[in-house]
Amino acid sequence: MYVCWMIWALTAILTAHPLAAQGETLRGLTSPGSTEVVVIGTVHGDHRLNDRYSAETLRDIIVALQPAAILIELPPSINGKPTVVNGKRASWLSTANEGWAQNAASETLGVPLIPYDRDGRNEFYAATHYFSRRDSATARLGALVERISVEDSDALEPLLLDIYRNISRSQRLLHNEAPPEVINSEAFDELIRAKRKMDQELILHLPDAHADQSELAEEYRFFRDEWEDRNRIMGENIREIAQRYSGERLVVMTGSEHRYILREQLTCAGGIVVREYWELLEHGSR
After folding, report:
1. Residue 22: CB partners within 8 Å, gap ≥ 6?
2. Which of 107, 219, 243, 260 has a CA between 20 and 30 Å from the CA of residue 129?
3. How far apart are the C-alpha atoms of 266 and 39, rounded to whole Å?
């Protein structure tokens, strides 16, 4: 019941934005000389669980937008092998739902797929044992907060961690149930912005406030710095690609947690007009 109400509340603040009629052309910009960039937030593997935001729905959105190129959240290569073959098919994770959608759209439109993620991304994660460290840090933080709650029943730390977990749970529920216009909305962006604010500032201060937890605090600084660095590089790569497509439209596919960050970076960049997919599909060709 909670999930249904939350989805209804988010959807209610949005206007319905149906896909453009099949075959309708949406190319052409209102600002000649600029590049129109449409950032589409995806839910990665959860597309296979979400009937309202399936891989087929994602493909149809991209095709209806008629972009000159599709930018995908992959590095140029992984372990020495290119992630895109012949410019048109992502070979890495191509069987995943998001990968299927981008490959299918590229094939239908005859436009290139361009990776824009940080070069050496996967190699960095492997070399730094990133994900196992993240899991360990999460468990250690939970144990710390449990200890604090036993020592001081009025401590705020348990409440902060509980709020963070509830935000993360809400995100997972929306990934599984919400339609694309909700995932690609300011309301959802605000949810992720709040989660990141807590993750990078409030949660970081929990181990920081305890002298015996300095190593855990350094771990969280490492995760924060990596996240900020990766998003900065992705934004820079998108801007460089956009310069090559002046006067055209690009679709940028990105995980929902990156969406608001990339939109903010690109909005501040010269020569780029950032648009919402539903805004374009509602109005049709201009």
Report:
1. 64
2. 260
3. 10
Task: Please state whether the predicted TM-score (pTM) of the whole model is above 0.70.
Answer: yes
Question: Amino acid identity of 108?
Answer: T
What single-letter DSSP state applies at residue 268? T
Token readout for 152 is 């001081």
Asked whether the beta carbons of 181 and 280 are under 8 A apart, the reply is: no
Query: What is the distance between the alpha carbons of residues 40 and 36, in angstroms, rounded to a whole number?
Result: 13
161-203 pLDDT, tens digit per residue, is 888 889 999 999 999 999 999 999 999 999 999 999 888 877 7
Cα–Cα distance for residue pair 108/70, rounded to 1 Å: 12
Q: Tell me the β-bridge partners of 113.
A: 70
CB-based contacts of 216, cutoff 8 Å, min separation 6: 137, 140, 141, 144, 207
DSSP state of 211: G
Instruction: Specify the DSSP element, H or E, that contains 89.
Output: strand 89-90
| Other beta carbons less than 10 A from residue 26's beta carbon | 18
| Nearest residue to 274 (alpha-carbon basis) of 240, 242, 237, 227 | 242
Q: How far apart are CA 286 and CA 280, in angstroms?
A: 9
Residue tagged 């992630």 (tokens): 83
Residues of the chain with pLDDT under 50: 1-9, 11-30, 285-286
Q: Which amino acid is at 274?
A: V
How far is 32 from 160, CA to CA, in rounded Å?
48
For every residue of 34-81, which 3-state class applies, written as one string?
A: CEEEEEEEECHHHHHCCHHHCHHHHHHHHHHHCCCEEEECCCCEECCE
Distance CA 219, CA 227 (A): 13
